[in-house]
Amino acid sequence: MTELQHTNSPGKSSRDDGFTQPAPQTPGMNPADAENLHPADLADHLENLTLEKQVSAFTRLPKEDAAEALAELDETTAVDVLENLDDDVAAQIIAEMAPDDAADVLDELDEEHRDALLDKLDREDSEELRNLLTFDPDTAGGVMNTELILLDRSLTVDEAIVYIRSEMADKESPYYAYIVDARHVLVGVLSLRDLMLARPGVIVGDAVQGQNVVTVRYDMDQREVAGLLSHYNFLALPVVDKEGHILGVVTYDDIMDIIHEEASADLLGMVGADPEESVDTPWPESVRRRLPWLFVNMVNSALSASVVYMFEGSIAQMAVLAVLMPMVANQAGNTGQQALAVMIRQLATDRFDQKKAWLAVWREGKIGLVTGLAMAVTAFCGAWVFTGLPAVGLVMAGALLCDMLLGAMAGGSIPLVFRALGRDPAQASSIFLTTITDGAGFFIFLGLATLFLL
Amino acid sequence: MTELQHTNSPGKSSRDDGFTQPAPQTPGMNPADAENLHPADLADHLENLTLEKQVSAFTRLPKEDAAEALAELDETTAVDVLENLDDDVAAQIIAEMAPDDAADVLDELDEEHRDALLDKLDREDSEELRNLLTFDPDTAGGVMNTELILLDRSLTVDEAIVYIRSEMADKESPYYAYIVDARHVLVGVLSLRDLMLARPGVIVGDAVQGQNVVTVRYDMDQREVAGLLSHYNFLALPVVDKEGHILGVVTYDDIMDIIHEEASADLLGMVGADPEESVDTPWPESVRRRLPWLFVNMVNSALSASVVYMFEGSIAQMAVLAVLMPMVANQAGNTGQQALAVMIRQLATDRFDQKKAWLAVWREGKIGLVTGLAMAVTAFCGAWVFTGLPAVGLVMAGALLCDMLLGAMAGGSIPLVFRALGRDPAQASSIFLTTITDGAGFFIFLGLATLFLL
User: For a designed S-S bond to B319, which of A64, A183, A315, A356 qualifies (C-beta 3.0 to 4.6 A apart)?
Assistant: First the structure.
């Protein structure tokens, strides 16, 4: 549900949206109170209960309230509940859920259980859900809602408004109507505002003549869909197949969730955590998902360590090199991460422009150079004072400047290179960056030291 | 504008939303074509022009198209354009902008120029904008739109619909109507759907009796506003003052922008980049904003280096320690960053729950322990093979296990500690984490080595 919730008529279906209202949460809430609670708040309350109490609550709740609450639960909890509910109860709840929400949670069940539940639904619901489940969950088809308002192109504006009024109680996006021909090919879009402001006798098919409708194909990545919808500030985007038949609609509320998810995915993926991880993820699963990247990181740090090994002799002669060496790597690593972060977010929030992207790398280079100079001067003074040897200061400064510049440009480039290779721009990018800044930093610093100090 | 754009009647005001349509962009676009372009696409096109051409385009565009395009420009470009436009032209464009968009861009000008432009507006517009400018830009008051539909509580449902129809052409959020008393205290909300489904004779004041409206105060942080709106999936949230008078409304499209901004702020702030930075930020400004944290990082790496210095003698005796030492720090640092990322996103996407937060730290501890064991075993084998000394392997494994566990718990805790101190949970968190994992890693590894190997 994308709209407000009804308080005033407890007897009415809670599907009827109505008025905003989280009633204040009462301790010891019983299911009879559930109707007065917004589904999102009810879900919050349920998430704090034990699995046993959750199952009990979902069994006793009116099926429509249960359906809306289930849609608001975090995924792990929703799956646990479904797996422990009586199958008949589970099927009844699923039947009341919006198709996109139902498909999302069914997708997480194992195939056998999913089929068992689908078989308990009536044929129409079951077919609709099976169809939705064929779409990749991270695409427009996997996110879309199939309950939308379609208008035949031959209707007049007033006929359209009457029809919408009769349909709007149950529709996800009641404020957009999609004009289709007899074969359900999308020919135009009209908002409720458009219809209310138009002259009554106008044929809707004529009203949308010449429109260039923004649509998304069912296989468009959800991230791209989110970008489009926030670019145009639409309430919803229609989803079509290759021939232009309308399949469903992606609404702004799903997009808000996607933006949150993708932002988390960037931050988590950058450091090698699982992009879909949250504090609700069971910890053994997190272990399983993080270990591969930790191994990759181990290999990478072994590579950097081998650079140090090349200069083991120099360190044996001048141990203070081991004291200063990590500072160079650390500083350049941080510089690189700053550039990396800016580029990752740039790719996430704006539509890709090749020229703009490489100009951005050049920009990072300039920043790396200037900040590198500032740090180099500081390091020169510091190292000179610390060791009493200006030559050490010079080596330190030179290595720092070079490594910071390299870090900045590597940080800006890595997401672009990943993207060009068809990989996620953020995934494990920080790990690969550190390999470069550590390895190069050690090499330059110890190399210069070996050349000029020993 | 949150809705679709009109193509069909080039003579009509482009403020009338109508139908979706980015017409394909033609090269050498001239202002006469602008009406057929969605403002967001027009803004994209304009952003690629030189400042001179931008100023020229904005001068020649119909004022309403210019206003909508200016609202869609990135902030830096919008400010540049305004500063170079003729003041009369600028004032005319601002007069056509939605008040919240106008206030956003005026806020970025220097005070003198801002006042000059405001003085050119008619009194009502000028007062409205001056009022909006008193709000902190990162709060509900700073984001809200003041053009909303208010219904006196004494109206009937059908009178309400007639009124809405007369107002909806110009309103940001035409699908919610806010029911107020004579003093504009908010008493309820009704959606257009509610009104269309209600019985005609009902008084709106009665219809909203007993509602518990979700509102935000003008001084609520925009991040919290965004969290509320996405929690409840509302189209808009009403903004009130301390006495409950309605001031404006925050709409979902502004929230989508805020979610993007806050996500970027997390990623950028974590590594010490400026949270509001993008590739459009002039590079000298980025230098200025990043340098402080780079200095902080330098100090922190000096602290870690001083730990190494304590063991300089050990390194002089056994130079291979310098080869292995960075591996421990690197691995623990990466582990810590994974925990840090999960916690940062948790605080960003969910409402804060103290108990849940510290349970999450405990969860990270378990993850750190198990992954630490896995890495320790790997490191033990690797170090033993590499040096031929099982004792070195043991020291390496022990240090790695301890440091990774410490890194995981530190990573999970730092955002909570920052938050408790009233600081942003993400800002520079990675820098402080590295200090811990580097310093502790060096200490434990070199300490164990000194104890057991020398």
Answer: A315
